[in-house]
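Listing S7. Sequence submitted for prediction.
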Amino acid sequence: MLEALETVGWGGLHHAYGPAADVPGQLRALSSADTGERHQAHYQLRGNVYHQGTRWQASCHVIPFLAELVDDPATPDRAAVLDLLRIVALGDRDDTHLPFRPGREFARAENVTRADVAAVVDWLHGDGDGDEPESCDAVAVSWDRDAYLAAAAISGRFAAWTGDGDPVVAAGAAELLAWFPATPPVVSCLVEMSAAEGREVARASANLSLGYLVPDEPAVDGRLAALLDAGAFGVRLTAAVALALRLGDRIPEAGLGILAEARDHADEIDAAAFPVPWDRSLLGFAALALYRIGLSP
């Protein structure tokens, strides 16, 4: 595993603290049998390639190797590796950026040149002496874009993880798919995810993603409507939220009723009882859905 690490010229790339020659060792350590070594590698990589939400020149190159680690069932703490992949690919973005429009989000990077990147790297790692290059912010956006595009290039692999045996991985993968092109195979995976016992959180995460993808798709609306009768309230609620986001005031009456009673189920759907991997709470999503259909929460 990770054989291709040596094909990347890490020493010629930079992260938050300088040349990225230390990154291969940190990536390998993510699969260590030693818990302390793994935790240290997570800590170091987060600081290096996702520093306070900023991505760097080396960040995009880390994405395929993190995906390779998630792919391997022998990797310990795969859900933590997936979380690392998510923040490197997307930074600190939350659902307020959905539906995601990469062209608009990364527009400032369109005219960034290699010379611009070199000037910013020299300034950053020369202790910031002299005036900040005019292109500094645009270069930062280009690194953000490159990390996103590296993930988008392999997003088909994320769809496979929605059926993972670890429901935490499946739930994280379902959330991740909200940010990338909704190809027919991706949509099919999200639609078909099970709501069976033990898979409810993953199913709920898929529901939320479908709220932002492929509008005007009757098959998706039909699946979400069917899930209004699911056993777990978290699944029913997220199906109702997704339908509100998709249909507005055309949401089925049953969905409206579920949104209205969300507060009565607060203990069932809090982060401890029903840990969906989204920053907004499920009560927050219920309030958002009511707002979208013109009702006060």
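Caption to Listing S7: primary sequence and predicted structure tokens for the chain studied. The domain at 157-297 is CATH 1.25.10 (Leucine-rich Repeat Variant). The chain has 16 helices and two strands.
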